[in-house]
Design a protein that fits this description.
Distance between the termini: 16 Å
Structural class: alpha+beta
Domain General stress protein FMN-binding split barrel: 3-149
Strand content: 35-45%
Helix content: 25-40%
Number of helices: 4
Number of domains: 1
CATH architecture: Roll
Largest sheet: 8 strands, antiparallel
Number of strands: 8
CATH class: Mainly Beta
Organism: Novipirellula aureliae
Shape: elongated
InterPro entries: Split_barrel_FMN-bd, Stress-Dev_Protein, YdaG_split_barrel_FMN-bd
CATH topology: Pnp Oxidase, Chain A
Radius of gyration: 18 Å
Protein name: Pyridoxamine 5'-phosphate oxidase
Order of helices and strands: HEEEEHEEHEHE
C-alpha cells in the first residue's frame, strides 16, 4: 500500500482530532473536535458554531494543524480550513449526538462546517503486525547499540 493511501485509511479510523489554529494574539490554540467526515482525498469536515473562537481565528489565518492519536497510531496534518455554509452537507453529515451543542438540531442557524484541506500529512503506525515488526527491529537495534531503521510502512511523510 502506498503511503498516501495508508495515511487516508488511518485518518478514516479516527472519530476525534485536535484542531490547532493561530489566535488573534499569535498563540497556537488547540481544541478537541469530533470528526464529522473524512473524504477519500484526505479532506476533513468538522461541525462548529459560527460564533466560536476558531472561526474568528480562521478569519485572520486559515492555516491549521490537525492531530489524531490512538493507542498505537498517530496522524498529523497541516493545511487550510474554510468555513462552509452548506445545508445539504450538514444534512449528510449530521449526528444526533451534536444536539448537545445545537439543541435546535441540524436546522440551527448557529451551525457551520469547517472543511480542512490538508496539504501535508504524517503518520506513525505501530499497530498490529507493523507494531510487532517495529518491536523486533527496535529490540535488535538496542542489542546492537544502534537506532532502528525507519519503516515506511510504519511511518511516512506525505504530500496531499
Amino acid at each position: 500500500m502506498n503511503a498516501k493511501k495508508k495515511l487516508i485509511d488511518l485518518i478514516k479510523d479516527f472519530d476525534t482530532a485536535m484542531l490547532v489554529t493561530r489566535s488573534h494574539d499569535g498563540l497556537l490554540d488547540a481544541r478537541p473536535m469530533a470528526i464529522a467526515g473524512a473524504e477519500d482525498d484526505g479532506q476533513l469536515w468538522f461541525v462548529t458554531d459560527r460564533n466560536s473562537g476558531k472561526i474568528a481565528d480562521l478569519m485572520l489565518e486559515e492555516g491549521v494543524a490537525v492531530t489524531m492519536q490512538g493507542s498505537n497510531t498517530f496522524v498529523s496534518l497541516s493545511g487550510t480550513a474554510h468555513a462552509v455554509d452548506d445545508r445539504a452537507k450538514i444534512d449528510e453529515l449530521w449526528n444526533e449526538a451534536w444536539k448537545v451543542w445545537f439543541p435546535e438540531g441540524k436546522e440551527s442557524q448557529a451551525i457551520t462546517l469547517l472543511r480542512i484541506e490538508p496539504s501535508h500529512g504524517e503518520y506513525w503506525d505501530n499497530s498490529g503486525l507493523t507494531g510487532v515488526k517495529y518491536l523486533l527491529n527496535a529490540g535488535k537495534a538496542y542489542l546492537q547499540g544502534e537506532r532502528p531503521e525507519k519503516d515506511v510502512e510504519a511511518n511516512a511523510s506525505v504530500s496531499l
